[in-house]
Specification:
Layout (H helix, E strand, L loop, with lengths): L2 E7 L8 E7 L7 E10 L2 H8 L15 E9 L11 E4 L2 E2 L5 H4 L10 E2 L11 E5 L3 E3 L6 H4 L3 H14 L7 E4 L5 H13 L2 E6 L2 H9 L4 E4 L5 H8 L5 E6 L6 H6 L1 E9 L12 H6 L3 E4 L5 H12 L7 E6 L3 H10 L5 E5 L1
Parallel strand pairs: 10-11, 10-13, 11-12, 13-14, 14-15, 16-17
Antiparallel strand pairs: 1-2, 3-4, 3-8, 3-17, 4-5, 5-9, 6-7
This protein binds zinc ion (ZN).
The site of zinc ion has 7 residues, from α2.
Amino acid sequence: MTSMRCVVVREHGGFDKLRLEERPIPTPGPGQVRVKLAAIGLNHLDTWVRRGVPGHTFSLPQVPSSDGCGVVDAIGHGVSNCKEGDAVVVLPGVSCGVCEACQLGQDNLCRSFHILGESCDGLCAEFAVVPAANVANKPRLLSAEEGASICLVFQTAWNMLIRRAALRAGETVLVHAGLSGVGSAAVQIANALGARVIATAGGPEKCARVAALGAHHVIDYKAKDFATEVRALTGKAGVDVVFEHVGQATFDASVKCLARGGRVVTCGATTGGSVQLSLHQVFFKNLSILGSTMGQKGDLRTILRMFDQGRFRAVLDRALPLAEVGEAHRLLESRAAMGKLVLVP
Ligand SMILES: [Zn+2]
C-alpha cells in the first residue's frame, strides 16, 4: 500500500468542499513520526477551516483536523521518545521548541506556534506525519475514539481556567454550553479543582448529562434566562469566573454575571466576535477580561495522566466513517450532538 485516503479543503464553502482524495502515504523525516490513525476528532476549528474566517488566510489546499489517536507505524531519524507499535494520541499544538516562550513551557505563546489542521496539514487522513514531540501514550482506559476526542478541548479549558483565570477551590464558575467540547472539559476540570460549577445547556437531556459530569447546578438556557438564574444561585453576588466561548450571544450577560473581582475568560466566539462592553462595570467591579488560545503541551501531559487515573472522561456522541465527514460537520454546526464527533478511517 503506497497511497492513503484523506480529506482535503481546496476552497472554502459548504459541506461539499470536504473532498475525499488519494495521496501518497507520507514518510517521516528526522525528528518526525508517522501515525496510522484509528480515529480523528472534530472541533469547531475544523468548520472554520472549511468555511473560512473573514480577515484570515488559510494556506489551501489543506487537510483539516487537529485531534487524532492511532499507532506509531514509522519513525524518523533521531526519534527516541516512542517506537513503532506504540498507541498514541496526537498533541495538536506545534512550536519551535527553542525560543524563550518554548523554553519557559509557554509553547502556545511561541511566535511560530500553530495548530495541526489549521495552518499545516492535519489529521483527517489514514496516516499523518507529526513532530515526535506531538505524540503521547494513549490513556489506557480510553478507546481510540475517546482518545481522539480529548486533547484540543481539555488543553484549551485547562489553560483558560487554571493558567488564565486562576480558578481556585471554593470559587464559583459559570460554564457556558456544558456539553460542548470545551464546556464538558471545563465542567470536569473545575469540579476536580474543587470549584462550585454552574453550567448551562439547551434542553433537559443535555442538562442531565452535564450534571452527571460534575456540574452542581445546570441551567436550561432554552427555558430560563441564565443571568437571572446565576443571580439567584449566588445570592445576588455573581460568579468568580465565567468560561466564555459563545461570544456575541452571551458575552454581555456573562460580564453582568461576574462578582466583584471576577474574571471572564474567552477562547472563542461561535456566535460572533463583536461585543459591547461598558468600561464602567469593568473598573467599578475590578473585572478582568482574559483571552486564551490552546494551551501548554506540559499541561496536556498532566491532563492525559489524569485520564489514566480515571479522573476525567471523554464525552463522545458518535463515530462516523471518514467518508461521512460532511455529515459530521453538519451535526457539529447544528449543535445536535451530545458530545464529541469522531471519524474512523
Ligand atoms: Zn518557540
